[in-house]
Design a protein that fits this description.
There is one protein chain. By secondary structure, the chain is mainly α. It has a domain at 25-83: Arc Repressor Mutant, subunit A, CATH 1.10.10.60. The protein is built from six helices and no strands. Helix 3 crosses helix 4 (53-60). The radius of gyration is 24 Å and the shape is elongated. The termini are far apart.
């Protein structure tokens, strides 16, 4: 009976499983763009005075802590959004399109 049990167990392999890259490492450069899109959508839904960091985080599918990795505070995040929407107001020359 002991031999039957030992034979039915698969042999242990010495090969190491492939390591998957963590999603935050793969998407690190995409995060600010995703957060920006989430901010715009959250502002459209709640208004700029009522938007919360939790609303933005939920829309971007990240934690609030992740947002703070890219932006120091809510004011900096909203300033970034303003810069992205109206780049010519911060000293950049308007495009001649």
């Amino acid at each position: 009976m002991a031999n039957e049990t030992a034979q039915s167990v698969a042999p242990i392999s010495d090969a190491k499983p492939k390591r998957r890259l963590r999603s935050w490492k793969r998407r690190k450069t995409d995060r600010p763009v995703e957060i920006l899109a989430a901010v715009k959508a959250a502002i459209a839904e709640h208004g700029i005075e009522s938007v919360r960091m939790a609303d933005i985080a939920n829309r971007a599918s990240v934690s609030k802590g992740t947002i703070y990795c890219y932006f120091s505070n809510k004011a900096e995040l909203l300033a970034f959004v303003g810069t992205a929407i109206h780049p010519h107001e911060n000293g950049a020359a308007p495009s001649s399109d």
